[in-house]
Amino acid sequence: MSLNLSVSWLGMKMSSPLFNASGVYCRTREELEQVRRSAAGAVVTKSCTLEPRAGNPEPRYRRTALGSINSMGLPNEGYRYYLDYAQAYDDAKPLFLSVSGMTLDDTLTILTELAALKLPCLPEVNLSCPNLPGKPQLGYDFAASAEALEAISRRYARPFGVKLPPYFDPAHFAAMAAVLNAFPLLRFVTCINSVGNGLVIDLDSESAVIKPKGGLGGLGGDYVLPTALANVREFAVLLADKHVIGCGGVKSGAEAFMHILAGATAVQVGTCLHEEGVSAFDRIEAELAAIMQAKGYQRLEDFRGRLKTL
Ligand code: SIN
């Protein structure tokens, strides 16, 4: 049986549904190139700000038995670095520019420049970084999110996407979906960013394991898979004419399959990529193909969004 794991969406073609989550293997040109040369189906940059940022004090990432906790604080090279990378980018593999201005004006400045350059790369506007001390996640403020999307749609008259924080209540899924559905240029949402402000404690030292924010940080990996799947599922249903990109807890073909079954168009890999490196893409793709073969599916469309409920 011949299998086809390619994805065509928004005029782009990905040979595999898997790519990196913003934040992992994407801060420097060298890291981005590793993803570009890997089996990943696309490449996304680190969320960029107007100016370069060193990020939060170390230690700011820790692997745990169930995944990871991080409070990186948006370390990045500044948006011009990523625009330069995008200008030189010459690959059929889609490129996404993750944007996370420290203010809405900063985000608009970055998007205005991106639009002027007419680069074939799609912005993923980050509404959900949980790691900026004193700055709440925009995606949890529905009115402020609507205001930001209004301004972005006015200034950047092209398709774009947003990265959302996890939501935990049907009322919040519905409220955010109502906001998102009002913006036709918003073509995709990435669900989810890390589950913000968890606390991992080391029993022996009786200490938090990361330094910023008194130890609070975003959780990824096994901790977040069911939350990620719920967000993918709910937004896939509520945002009928938009794409949902799944992110959270993918470490094998099984979780990638679940994200697509829940409705994901494509699937990002974060914690597992951080731990394993870009060879994770080959492995996960091969595992996904084996699951599809065993179930008799030839294409991702054969099962995408077809979650059964009891
Ligand atoms: C970070 O740099 O703190 C992570 C970015 C994010 O979670 O949006």
TrEMBL record:
Broad class of enzyme this protein falls into: oxidoreductase
Biological pathway: Pyrimidine metabolism; UMP biosynthesis via de novo pathway
GO molecular function, one term: dihydroorotate dehydrogenase (fumarate) activity
Catalysis: reaction(s): (S)-dihydroorotate + fumarate = orotate + succinate
The UniProt record lists the keyword Isomerase: no
Stored PROSITE patterns: DHODEHASE_2 (PS00912)
EC number: 1.3.98.1
Pfam (any one): DHO_dh
Location(s), subcellular: Cytoplasm
Domain Dihydroorotate dehydrogenase catalytic: 5-292
Name used for this protein in its record: dihydroorotate oxidase (fumarate)
Organism: Chromobacterium rhizoryzae
